[in-house]
Design goal:
It is a single chain. By secondary structure, the protein is of the alpha+beta class. The chain has two domains: 95 residues, no CATH class; 66 residues, no CATH class. Helices cover 44% and strands 12% of the residues. It is built from five helices and four strands; from the N terminus they run βαβαααβαβ. The protein has a four-stranded antiparallel beta sheet with strand order 2-3-1-4. The two termini are 13 Å apart. The mean pLDDT is 94.
Protein backbone atom coordinates (compact mmCIF):
# COMPACT_ATOMS: atom_id res chain seq x y z
CA UNK A 1 0.00 0.00 0.00
CA UNK A 2 1.49 3.36 -1.05
CA UNK A 3 1.65 6.45 1.13
CA UNK A 4 -1.41 8.63 0.93
CA UNK A 5 -2.00 12.25 1.95
CA UNK A 6 -5.77 11.79 1.90
CA UNK A 7 -8.91 11.67 -0.20
CA UNK A 8 -10.48 14.60 -2.00
CA UNK A 9 -14.04 15.06 -3.21
CA UNK A 10 -14.98 17.56 -5.93
CA UNK A 11 -18.25 19.52 -5.88
CA UNK A 12 -19.99 21.81 -8.35
CA UNK A 13 -21.33 24.46 -5.98
CA UNK A 14 -20.57 25.92 -2.55
CA UNK A 15 -23.80 24.68 -0.96
CA UNK A 16 -22.88 21.07 -1.66
CA UNK A 17 -19.41 21.67 -0.26
CA UNK A 18 -20.72 23.19 2.98
CA UNK A 19 -23.26 20.38 3.33
CA UNK A 20 -20.54 17.76 2.77
CA UNK A 21 -18.19 19.46 5.24
CA UNK A 22 -20.90 19.50 7.91
CA UNK A 23 -21.63 15.82 7.36
CA UNK A 24 -17.93 14.95 7.51
CA UNK A 25 -17.57 16.87 10.77
CA UNK A 26 -20.64 15.10 12.19
CA UNK A 27 -19.11 11.76 11.21
CA UNK A 28 -16.08 12.57 13.35
CA UNK A 29 -13.52 13.68 10.76
CA UNK A 30 -11.37 16.49 12.13
CA UNK A 31 -8.31 16.66 9.87
CA UNK A 32 -9.92 18.05 6.76
CA UNK A 33 -9.76 21.15 4.65
CA UNK A 34 -11.94 22.77 2.01
CA UNK A 35 -10.85 24.63 -1.11
CA UNK A 36 -12.93 27.05 -3.14
CA UNK A 37 -12.32 29.82 -5.68
CA UNK A 38 -13.85 32.42 -3.33
CA UNK A 39 -14.81 32.71 0.36
CA UNK A 40 -17.87 30.63 1.23
CA UNK A 41 -20.01 31.71 4.14
CA UNK A 42 -20.28 29.06 6.84
CA UNK A 43 -17.52 26.86 5.45
CA UNK A 44 -15.03 27.60 8.23
CA UNK A 45 -17.59 26.60 10.86
CA UNK A 46 -18.56 23.51 8.88
CA UNK A 47 -15.00 22.11 8.88
CA UNK A 48 -14.57 22.88 12.57
CA UNK A 49 -12.31 25.93 12.33
CA UNK A 50 -13.10 27.72 15.54
CA UNK A 51 -10.20 29.58 17.10
CA UNK A 52 -6.87 31.00 16.16
CA UNK A 53 -4.03 32.14 18.40
CA UNK A 54 -3.30 35.27 16.36
CA UNK A 55 -5.13 37.59 18.78
CA UNK A 56 -2.95 36.39 21.66
CA UNK A 57 0.18 36.93 19.56
CA UNK A 58 -0.91 40.47 18.69
CA UNK A 59 -1.67 41.21 22.35
CA UNK A 60 1.74 39.94 23.42
CA UNK A 61 3.44 41.93 20.65
CA UNK A 62 1.59 45.08 21.70
CA UNK A 63 2.49 44.63 25.36
CA UNK A 64 6.14 44.01 24.50
CA UNK A 65 6.14 47.07 22.22
CA UNK A 66 4.53 49.30 24.83
CA UNK A 67 6.91 48.18 27.55
CA UNK A 68 9.88 48.57 25.20
CA UNK A 69 8.85 52.11 24.28
CA UNK A 70 8.32 53.17 27.86
CA UNK A 71 11.48 51.48 29.17
CA UNK A 72 13.57 52.95 26.35
CA UNK A 73 12.43 56.48 27.18
CA UNK A 74 12.77 55.88 30.91
CA UNK A 75 16.33 54.62 30.45
CA UNK A 76 17.28 57.62 28.31
CA UNK A 77 15.51 60.30 30.37
CA UNK A 78 16.14 59.04 33.90
CA UNK A 79 19.21 56.78 33.93
CA UNK A 80 21.50 57.32 30.95
CA UNK A 81 21.19 61.02 30.08
CA UNK A 82 18.95 62.92 32.50
CA UNK A 83 18.22 66.50 31.52
CA UNK A 84 16.31 68.97 33.65
CA UNK A 85 14.06 70.72 31.13
CA UNK A 86 11.91 73.46 32.62
CA UNK A 87 11.95 71.90 36.10
CA UNK A 88 9.94 68.83 35.09
CA UNK A 89 10.72 65.52 36.75
CA UNK A 90 13.03 63.13 34.94
CA UNK A 91 10.31 60.47 34.76
CA UNK A 92 7.69 62.63 33.06
CA UNK A 93 5.47 59.80 31.83
CA UNK A 94 2.93 61.97 29.94
CA UNK A 95 5.67 62.90 27.49
CA UNK A 96 6.42 59.18 26.98
CA UNK A 97 2.90 58.37 25.73
CA UNK A 98 3.33 59.06 21.97
CA UNK A 99 6.40 56.85 21.52
CA UNK A 100 4.95 54.17 23.80
CA UNK A 101 1.73 54.13 21.75
CA UNK A 102 3.56 54.00 18.42
CA UNK A 103 5.78 51.11 19.49
CA UNK A 104 2.72 49.27 20.82
CA UNK A 105 1.08 49.57 17.40
CA UNK A 106 4.29 48.69 15.54
CA UNK A 107 5.06 45.56 17.57
CA UNK A 108 1.39 44.48 17.47
CA UNK A 109 1.30 44.84 13.68
CA UNK A 110 4.58 42.96 13.25
CA UNK A 111 3.30 40.19 15.53
CA UNK A 112 0.11 40.00 13.45
CA UNK A 113 1.94 39.69 10.14
CA UNK A 114 4.64 37.29 11.31
CA UNK A 115 2.14 35.29 13.39
CA UNK A 116 -0.22 34.95 10.43
CA UNK A 117 2.60 33.75 8.21
CA UNK A 118 3.85 31.32 10.85
CA UNK A 119 0.46 29.92 11.86
CA UNK A 120 -0.53 29.43 8.22
CA UNK A 121 2.85 27.81 7.51
CA UNK A 122 3.54 30.30 4.74
CA UNK A 123 5.19 30.57 2.35
CA UNK A 124 4.22 27.09 1.18
CA UNK A 125 5.37 26.61 -2.41
CA UNK A 126 4.28 22.95 -2.36
CA UNK A 127 1.31 21.16 -0.86
CA UNK A 128 0.17 17.58 -1.57
CA UNK A 129 -3.28 18.71 -2.76
CA UNK A 130 -1.58 20.18 -5.83
CA UNK A 131 -1.11 16.56 -6.96
CA UNK A 132 -4.85 15.90 -7.03
CA UNK A 133 -6.34 15.57 -10.49
CA UNK A 134 -8.48 18.56 -11.48
CA UNK A 135 -7.36 20.56 -8.41
CA UNK A 136 -6.36 23.44 -10.70
CA UNK A 137 -10.11 24.05 -11.07
CA UNK A 138 -10.24 25.11 -7.39
CA UNK A 139 -9.22 28.59 -8.53
CA UNK A 140 -11.94 28.74 -11.20
CA UNK A 141 -15.26 27.04 -10.57
CA UNK A 142 -14.90 23.87 -8.49
CA UNK A 143 -15.06 23.19 -4.75
CA UNK A 144 -13.03 20.52 -2.98
CA UNK A 145 -13.17 18.79 0.38
CA UNK A 146 -10.03 16.93 1.46
CA UNK A 147 -9.87 14.49 4.36
CA UNK A 148 -6.31 13.81 5.46
CA UNK A 149 -5.00 10.30 6.05
CA UNK A 150 -3.69 11.47 9.44
CA UNK A 151 -7.25 11.76 10.76
CA UNK A 152 -8.01 9.19 13.49
CA UNK A 153 -11.27 8.25 11.70
CA UNK A 154 -9.56 7.78 8.34
CA UNK A 155 -9.79 4.41 6.66
CA UNK A 156 -9.11 4.42 2.93
CA UNK A 157 -12.13 2.38 1.81
CA UNK A 158 -14.58 3.55 4.46
CA UNK A 159 -13.69 7.22 3.92
CA UNK A 160 -13.98 6.77 0.15
CA UNK A 161 -17.46 5.27 0.55
CA UNK A 162 -18.42 8.11 2.87
CA UNK A 163 -17.23 10.76 0.41
CA UNK A 164 -19.01 9.03 -2.47
CA UNK A 165 -22.22 9.04 -0.42
CA UNK A 166 -22.06 12.86 -0.45
CA UNK A 167 -22.71 12.82 -4.23
CA UNK A 168 -19.56 14.62 -5.41
CA UNK A 169 -18.45 14.93 -9.02
CA UNK A 170 -15.61 12.59 -8.13
CA UNK A 171 -13.38 11.31 -5.37
CA UNK A 172 -9.63 11.09 -5.89
CA UNK A 173 -6.66 9.95 -3.89
CA UNK A 174 -4.06 12.60 -3.06
CA UNK A 175 -0.48 11.38 -3.11
CA UNK A 176 2.06 13.14 -0.88
Amino acid sequence: MSALYGLMAEFDNPEDLVRAARRAYQQGYRKMDAYSPYPVEGLADAIGFRHTRISLLVLMGGIIGGLSGFCLQYWISVIDYPLNVGGRPYNSWPSFIPVTFELTVLFGALAAVLGMLGLNRLPMPYHPVFNAPRFALATRDRFFLAIEAGDPQFDREQTRRFLESLMPQGVSEVEP
